[in-house]
Design a protein that fits this description.
This protein is mainly beta and 293 residues long. The protein has strands at 2-3, 12-26, 35-36, 44-63, 68-88, 114-117, 120-133, 136-150, 160-174, 177-190, 198-200, 214-216, 218-230, 233-246, 253-264, 268-276, 284-289. The two termini are 23 Å apart.
Length: 293
C-alpha cells in the first residue's frame, strides 16, 4: 500500500507486508561458520542454510523542497536461519560431503538453527536531481543518507546501528549514450547479527560473484556503466559495466561484463547481466527487475 499524497504538504504513507526467502546460503562468511570433522579434525565443513525474513515496514515521508525529502520508517521483522546440509571442503579426506561419508562435523546441524526478532527505526534523507528520457536516467545526480537503529526500545535480540550512504550521477555525451556511476558505503556498530552484516556479491553489487561472496561490518562499493540505447528500439538498452568493492579496505573485489535491459509494458524493465572476475572462470548470469542504480 502506498499513498503519495496524504495531505496538502505531500506527506506520503507506505505500508509493506513481506516474506522473503533466500535459499542455499553458505556459512563460510559467518563467524564460526567453519567446523572440524568429528573423526578427522583436519577436515573442514561449512553448511548451507535457508534464510527467511517476514515482517512489516511502515514509512512516512515528506518533501523538504523540490529536490530534498525526509523519510522515517518502522520495521518489525522475524528472522529464521534454518541449516539444511553440511558441505565438505574440497581438500578433505572425504571430499564428497559430510552427509555421504563416515566423517561428520563435531556439531549437530539442528543446534545451529536460529530465530529472532529484528525491529528497527529508520531515518533517511534523499536528494534527487536526476533527469530522465522516458524510463531511462540520462543526466543529473542524486544521493541518499540513512540511519537505522535496531533493537533497544524497539525490541529484538540484537542492539546495533547501521549507517549508509549513496551517490549516483549520469551524463549523456550523445543522444542515445549514457555514462553513469554509483558509489556507496556503509558501517555497522554494536552487537551485529551474522545475517545482517554488509555483504558484497550478486546482482545488486558485484555481478561477477555469487550472492554474499564476502561479508563485513563496513563496506564500500562503486559501479560504473556505459548504457547504449538503440534508435527505433526504445525498449532495448545495451550495457557495459565494471564493479569494485571491499568489506575491509584491505582486499578489493572486481567484476566486469556486459548486459542488456528490455522494457515490457506493465511488467517493467528486465535486467540481464553476465559478469566475469579477474580470477577467471565462466561468466556469472544475473537476472533482476530494473536498473542496478
Amino acid at each position: 500500500f502506498q499513498e503519495p499524497w496524504l495531505d496538502a504538504n505531500h506527506t506520503s504513507l507506505g505500508l509493506k507486508l513481506y516474506s522473503n526467502h533466500t535459499l542455499d546460503l553458505s556459512s563460510k562468511n559467518l563467524s564460526g561458520g567453519v567446523f572440524p570433522g568429528r573423526e578427522q579434525p583436519d577436515n573442514k565443513y561449512t553448511y548451507n542454510y535457508n534464510e527467511k525474513r517476514t515482517g512489516l515496514d511502515l514509512t512516512i515521508g515528506r518533501p523538504i523542497n523540490r529536490s530534498l525529502r525526509l523519510d522515517t520508517s518502522f520495521q518489525m521483522e522475524r528472522v529464521t536461519l534454518d541449516p539444511q546440509k553440511w558441505v565438505a571442503a574440497t581438500g578433505n579426506k572425504y571430499a564428497e560431503g559430510a552427509d555421504q561419508t563416515q566423517d561428520h562435523p563435531s556439531v549437530n546441524l539442528s543446534e545451529l538453527k536460529e530465530e529472532y526478532w529484528d525491529n528497527s527505526l529508520g531515518l533517511g534523507l534523499t536528494y534527487n536531481r536526476l533527469l530522465y528520457t522516458g524510463v531511462y536516467s540520462t543526466g543529473g545526480y542524486g544521493g541518499y543518507l540513512g540511519l537505522n537503529l535496531h533493537g533497544g526500545i524497539f525490541g529484538g535480540k540484537y542492539n546495533y546501528q547501521r549507517l549508509y550512504g549513496e551517490f549516483k550521477q549520469f551524463y549523456s555525451p550523445f543522444e542515445y549514450t549514457t555514462l553513469g556511476y554509483r558509489v556507496m558505503g556503509g558501517k555497522l556498530l554494536g552487537d551485529i547479527p551474522e545475517s545482517s552484516k554488509l555483504y558484497l556479491g550478486g546482482e545488486l553489487s558485484l555481478r561477477g560473484y555469487d550472492v554474499r561472496h564476502v561479508a563485513g561490518e563496513e563496506q564500500a562499493l562503486a559501479n560504473f556503466e556505459l548504457r547504449q540505447r538503440i534508435p527505433n528500439m526504445e525498449n532495448l538498452e545495451l550495457v557495459l559495466f565494471y564493479d569494485v568493492g571491499t568489506v575491509d579496505f584491505e582486499e578489493y573485489h572486481q567484476s566486469y561484463g556486459i548486459g542488456f535491459r528490455y522494457n515490457i509494458p506493465v511488467l517493467g524493465q528486465l535486467r540481464f547481466d553476465f559478469g566475469w572476475t579477474p580470477e577467471g572462470g565462466p561468466p556469472k548470469f544475473n537476472f533482476f527487475f530494473g536498473e542496478m542504480f
